[in-house]
Each structure stands twice: as C-alpha cells, then as structure tokens.
Amino acid sequence: MDLIALAIAPGLAICLFIFHRDAYNREPKINLLVTFVLGALSVIPSGLIETGLIDKNANSIIQLAIRAFLMVALVEEAGKFAALRFFAYPKKSFDEPLDGIVYSVMASMGFATLENILYVFSPNENLSSYQIGFFRMFTAVPAHATFGVLMGYYAGKAKFDPANSLVWLLKGLFWATLFHGAYDFFLFLQSSPDVDPETSGILLFIGAMVSFIVALRLSFRHIKTHRSLSQQTYKPSETLSIRKAYPADIPLIRDLTYKVWPQTYSAILSKEQIDYMLNMMYSEQSLQSQMQRGDEFIIAYNGKDPVGFASFALTGPQTYKLHKIYVLPSQQGKGSGKFIIDQLTNAMKKKGATALQLNVNRNNPAKSFYEKIGFAVIKEEDIDIGSGYFMNDYVMEKKL
Questions:
Q1: What is the Cα–Cα distance from 254 to 159, expressed in whole angstroms?
Q2: Is there a contact between 227 and 21 (Cβ–Cβ < 8 Å)?
Q3: What's the gap between Cα 366 and its chain centre?
Q4: 7 with 82, same domain?
Q5: pLDDT band at 226, cuts 50/70/90?
Q6: 337 lies in which domain range?
Q7: CB count in 10 Å sphere of residue 86
Q8: Which residues share a beta bridge with 166?
Q9: Residues 277 and 230 in one domain
C-alpha cells in the first residue's frame, strides 16, 4: 500500500497544482479525470510499440539517440497527444489558452502515474522499490509534467488560431518530444559502451538535469503567460488600473487614439471626417488646451501596458461629462470600459456628483454597452464642428 501511495502521490500533487493554477474558469472535473485516465491508458500502446522497436543490444551513441528521441520520446508524447487532441481539444469547456496546459498535464500525469506504478513494482538489481519511487518523484514525474506544459501551451494557441492550428499542434508535439528525448538520451548513455561510467555519470547529471531545468523554466513561463490571459478575460479588475494623465502623457494619448479611432469609426464616418476630427481634437496643441481648461485625463493600464484613456470635467452642479473614453480593440469586450467608468464614477460620487453624462454617435454600437451599465438617452444633438461636418450624437446620462 505504501508503494502504491508513493507511486501515485507525485502525479496527483502536480494535477492539483495545475488545477489551482486554472483559477478563473476551471474545467469540469469529469473531463479532467477522463483525460487523466486516457493518458494512463496510452502507456499500453506506447509500451507495446517501444518493445517492438527497441533493440536493447543497440547501445552506440547514435543508436541510443534514435532510441531516446524516436522510439521512446516521440512514441510516448504521441500517446499523450492523442488523449489531448481527440478527447479534450474538441470540448466546449476548452475555451481559453490555459486549458491546453491543464488538459495536457492531466494526460501526462495519467501516463506518468501508471508508468510509476509499473516501475516501483518491477524488480531492480541496484535499487529498492522505495528508492525508485523517491528518485522518480523528483525527476521523471515532474519531467513528464514539463513536457505536458510545453505541448499544452501550443495546443492552447492552436485552439484560438484555427487557420494555423495544425502548425501549433505539431510545434507542441515537437517541443515535448525534443525535451523528453534529450532527458532520456542522457539517461540511456549509462548503458553505452562508448562512454566510460564516470563520464556518463557527469553527462547524466549535466545533460538530463539541464534539459529538465530548462523545460521546467519554460513551463512556468508558459503557465504564467496563459494564466495572465485567463485573468484578463475573467477577472479584468485584477490586472487593470488607472492613473491621472499629465501633459507629458500627450504623446501616449495620441498613440492610443490612432490605434483606436480607425477601427471604431471607419464604418460610420468618412476617412476625411475622421482625419479632420483627429486633427481638431487630438493634436498636441488641442490636448494641451483641453488640459489647461480643466479637463482631467486618465490612462488605463493592463498590468504594465497602457490600453486606454478617458477625459472628463465638471459641467454643471453635481454633474460630470465624460468627454472621451477609448480602449484598444484587443481590450474591448473584456470589461475594460466598464472598469474605467466604475473607477471614475466612484471617484465622482465621493466629490458629491449625482450624474455622469456622455455623448455617443447615434450609429455607434457602443450605445448598447452604455445602456447595459446604467446610462439612458436623455436627448439628441447635432454639433457643427466646422468644414461641413457634424457630430450626430445621443446625450446619455447615468445617475450616480
């Protein structure tokens, strides 16, 4: 019973770690369990294929490299890949890039756990079953997890880039196989007559451990990257922040404007009017004048990256006007606009404000967004901005 616990514990511990990394939109437990089981079952065909391919008497360095990369690493990673690609990947619950890592590690830990059980119950002349179990707890099992992360990282990218999905999936299989093969190659050198025992021991430590450590570092980086994407999607307030803008920020405001305006207004305004309004309202001189007359500007950040801005001013007793609010197209639909408005309205209420108004073009679909967060149309107005151009707007108001 102790041996079973020793064999199973490392894989389960890593599964729990990955499960808790997926904190924002967790996968159905039944899907995770099935993926784990399918990964474990892939040990059987992998073992049969390896038995049929491997010649244990072929121990030259070239033959060991072929065995490590093609007969072991590729075969085993292909088995895990099949569980990931044909069961987990098509699921509706696979709905964020981090899910690729989650499911891939589940398949890898299923494989590693059954493999661990077989190893600790197999006779060994040099090591006891407990020694094998402890050694694999800190080497082979976490190594399988890192290979799973590498494969899953690219599977997550493939899911959300259908045009290049095959390329991403094959990249994942390639990198998992490469690191797996490198790890095994240095282990297999122990049996090569071309390498003396002392040298093979040094190579084992340097080669296998370095490949494992590099894979581990890449794994944590990939987990952090995909987890950040999940956080931005499901808990945007945890990564978003705002700060007051100053005249020195005018170049940044202009840069954000030119990234937002063409996509926001190209369907409802002519290019000539867009160019005219950009020059009228977003030239350096115009922005400086707006700040000097009392308009307050803020910059919104997602982590360290500027992703939007807004400007507002007190226009009447207890009433503020939101003159501008724009976020990058990549941030739209992720709660960023609502976050900015919530932050501003909270600050305005503390100053005694009872209403926030804004103008929105009558053809701008953003009107429905404002209605969802509490704004209502109070009137229409057509503003002559010169050169024959008009702003045909709704005036909307939100009670604070």
A1: 34
A2: yes
A3: 27
A4: yes
A5: low
A6: 238-399
A7: 10
A8: none
A9: no
